[in-house]
Amino acid sequence: MKRITISMMLLCGLALTAMAQQQPGKGLTVTLDYYYNNEFKPDKAGNPVRWHYIWNETDNGGISIWGGIFDSLGVKRDSLLEAPTAANLQKTNIYMIIDPDTEKESPHPNYMNEKDAAVIFNWVKAGGVLVLMENDSANAEFDHFNKLSEKFGIHFNGDSRNRVQGKNWEQGTFNIPPGHEIFKPGRKVYIKELSTLQLKSPARAVFKDGQYVIMAKARVGKGTVFAVGDPWFYNEYVDGKRLPSSYQNVEAAADLTQWIISAVSH
Predict the structure, then answer these.
(1) Domain holding 53: CATH number?
(2) Where would you tag: which of 25, 27, 84, 119 has the fewest CB atoms within 10 A of its CB?
């Protein structure tokens, strides 16, 4: 309950209040993958429960706060527990895949394959918005998942940038300059232990740290892809409790959400 209260306080304090009142995402659906990220752990009674980067998880590893931002902008939330098909993707405007499983995380991981990748590619080409959030080399699968991302010119390197020792927050800091196409006000954000990207057409970088590509987007047909090598907006780093107040991860989450909504072909 405490985390839910914190989440709502953050949402109420966001500068996007006016946008939320206008409900720019009304009529749209965002679907979160629960197939390639399909992790379970035992509850207190020993029963398996789904966890890790899912909508209704309110502890550190969930994305309930980001889900609340989608709610505030009028976007309906959904989840997909099976492989994507033309039929089930037709029900959504936005499809997000976060942290595909390794064998360490799931005894029988559902790996990306050419068939699934082709289905997703065609859905994007027809106007879908795809959000890809990988992880660092120790915590996500890359060889199979790159079969999908490379269809859009995006290759996840499977490395681990911004390794942070303890509370040396600056080791995980990125300063996004004002006037950015997604994070328009400019943001000081925190991303630790992420995979960098290699790009070819049609992808292009939307944020770089020196020579390293951190975020990218691609336009294919009527659709759009956004990619970053970290789950990034999970509760631990947007709830206002862990990071120093100078960091703007929750504001950046709101910026990206608005941009995703604007990218949908109406």
Answers:
(1) 3.40.50.880
(2) 27
